[in-house]
Amino acid sequence: ENDFGEIDYEKVRTTIQAAVHFLDNVIDMNRYPLPQIEQMTKKNRKIGMGVMGWADMLVQLGIPYDSQEALETGAKLMNFIREEARKASIELAKKRGVFPNFKGSIYDKKSSYFKGQDLRLRNATITTIAPTGTTSMLADASSGIEPYFAITYEKNLVSGEKVVNLNPYLVKLAKKRGFWHEDLVEKIKNNKGSLRGLSEIPPEIQKLFPIASDIAYEDHIKMQAAFQKSGVDNAVSKTINMPSSVTPQDVIQSYLLAYAEGCKGLTIYREQSRQKQILERDVQEKEGIFLRKIDDIRYGRTWSIQTPVGTLHATINEDEEGNPYEIFFNVGKAGGDILAVAEGLGRLISLALRTTPAKLSLSKLKMIVEQISGIGGSSSVGFGVKKVRSLPDAIAKVIEDYLKEKQGENPTEIILSEEQQSIFSLPIENNHGNICPECGNATLVYEEGCEKCPCGYSKC
């Protein structure tokens, strides 16, 4: 039995006829935000019928995306779609009339803009390859004329959840040909969502299922051009995927090639140019380049230091090579606002460390100390070199001590004596609440069923 099929052009024809009729109806039934938009839309009656699921179709035809046969198939199919769509629009024009702005258009023989095609159309433009990211998900099809982003990938939802997707055509083919096993999913994920180079997958199947990053940018552009030149009235939505190692010269060449091939526009995406992608392959980043991994068991030390808002407890964790990559802050007896600020600072510094190469982590901490050291608030504790002006200033002193230890120096002792604590904590004795919106001090406490501040502010 043949694993692959062929295009049912008769079914495509009847679908086109229904689609053109439907889209023309939408123009009349639509609700428009402005009268001017409604007027212009109804005068030109432009519709944008296109395709999606192109990568799915090629797989089912047994044609690799990055092949000459795929380009020829795309050109033939889009030509067929345009011709049948025009026939449908002409038939509608016989019943409903040509689009109101027909006179003087490129289809009017008497017009100076006439381009040699004497067509009495209902719609000024008919075909478009639109972006179908969401609609293709609803239809459970590949997006537009794009190749697969990955054979297995994770989708980030707004809720924060991640959904794992696996190409169903690969599963079906693998089971039919006998190379399917449950570990295959994990192996594909560890291979950046690609089949290329996996020994257990037949070479012809690896070739049949290329993902966007497997395809040279020239082949991306040629596919866009094949559709653009063969039957698309408007523009083609297509992303030209490039690796993170791409050079400016490569980008220049891609635009020049697209221009030479007759593309109306070009969208380039360089991998990892944005930290959060809607679709993510399970990419194993080079160590220290993007995000250092966190081990399940971590080792570190904790420092304690007096601050104007309570005692700061700072924990610095290191990796197995002794490089800092995580910091936690907690403020004893502090209110919720202070704890939130402390946690936020800890997360930001940890993120800065984890996105820094391990060998540069100490330099990164030094930069952080330079930025936050000496920040002052409304009160302070200590005096001289031991004076702590604020929570950020205390964090800077802790990190500074840590850096001195790493460099073999004796750290400066910040912990105050009992006598010093009794003297310098008097003005801030009650500063263990939330931040008051009126005076800005951490003196907003919950008493008698209400949050109050000594400055006179009350939430009740």
UniProtKB/TrEMBL annotation:
Catalytic reaction annotation: a 2'-deoxyribonucleoside 5'-diphosphate + [thioredoxin]-disulfide + H2O = a ribonucleoside 5'-diphosphate + [thioredoxin]-dithiol
Listed cofactors: adenosylcob(III)alamin
Xref: InterPro entries: RdRp_reductase_class-2 (IPR050862), RNR_lg_C (IPR000788), TSCPD_dom (IPR024434)
GO BP annotation list: DNA biosynthetic process
Sequence ranges assigned to domain Ribonucleotide reductase large subunit C-terminal in this UniProt record: 5-269
Domain TSCPD residues, every copy: 298-403
Gene Ontology MF terms: cobalamin binding; nucleotide binding; ribonucleoside-diphosphate reductase activity, thioredoxin disulfide as acceptor
Keywords attached to this entry: Cobalamin, Cobalt, DNA synthesis, Nucleotide-binding, Oxidoreductase
EC number: 1.17.4.1
Domain of life: Bacteria
Role summary: Catalyzes the reduction of ribonucleotides to deoxyribonucleotides. May function to provide a pool of deoxyribonucleotide precursors for DNA repair during oxygen limitation and/or for immediate growth after restoration of oxygen.
Assigned protein family: Belongs to the ribonucleoside diphosphate reductase class-2 family.
Protein name per UniProt: Vitamin B12-dependent ribonucleotide reductase
